[in-house]
Give the backbone structure.
Amino acid sequence: MPAAARALKPVEGASPPWWHELLRELSPAYFGLVMATGIVSLASNMMDYPQLARALFVLNVIQYAVLWLVYLLRACLFPRRFFGDMIDHARGPGYFTVVAATGILASQSILLHEGLLMGFGLWWLAVILCVGLTYTIFTTFTVKKEKPPLDKGISGAWLLAVVATQALAVSGALLAARIGQPFRLELNLVALSMWLWGGMLYIWMMSLIFYRYTFFPFSPGDLSPPYWINMGAMAISTLAGSLLIQNAPHAPYLVSLLPFLRGFTVFYWATGTWWIPMLLVLGIWRHVFQRFPFSYDPLYWGAIFPLGMYAASTWQMNRAMGFDFLGFLPVTFLYVAWFGWLVTFIAMVRRLLRLVRRRGAPA
């Protein structure tokens, strides 16, 4: 164990610091904060709010750095819990938020900071994290002896693997549009491959999730915020497809695939759009008819991200496909994403302050 981590260990016989329990129970999906902030920033920049976009970018860099420190500290102090969560069917997919967050931050760096080197470095980090987590988590899920039943083991959080893959496609396509040879063709091919890989994962996972929806008992507590990733995974797939269409003039093989790219991009967007009324109806059922209480949960960032992503992806699809008649949708969803992000951020800060006051007060 590193010396810094040993120094933070409580003295034997003494009660551990109040924050140890918070760190031990930290959600693996907390990088959803960076995902949500990043996409709201990118969507704001697309729709001519550059100052807000840059302010959120600065905030996101800080959040990303702090979360890395917190998670590294958790891995040092509570390695069994940290790696145990990684191979848990319910919590493990939450780790894919670090991949998606890194890819989103890479896209912010490219578009808002014009930092190609920073964006390229973050993209490579996201690739390494994606490959490592994908084959660690899903290999373990396959070979472990004790497995939960389907209704206990799968949720919308599994689709974070799709979001992570498509975040690499998005940042890769943005890099490919801004660099020359010898890497432009290769990056476009990687982005295309990631886009196809993400689509394959969505079809596999969504089949199981929809089966769980319709053939197993469903309680209000089961409808956790990550179910909004059902839509968000399709929205980011739409964004990646739209960027590949715009990159076609620079890659001959993309030109030959344009009918396929356009068809599947609209398919992804239509599927994501279908989910929005369904999720709203289920949300009303949960909170109005079943009276499930509203309270801050880090998983709510997984619901803000799809709203911002739908705004960004629809805007880019309109640009790639000439769907000017859909121009009202990106702006509408951007406003909704702003409101949702602000409410959730205030709730997060209030929760943290309340915990600090409660746990830090002398007995």
Remarks:
- The mean pLDDT is 90.
- The domain at 25-72+87-360 is CATH 1.50.10.150 (Glycosyltransferase).
- The chain has one domain: 25-72+87-360.
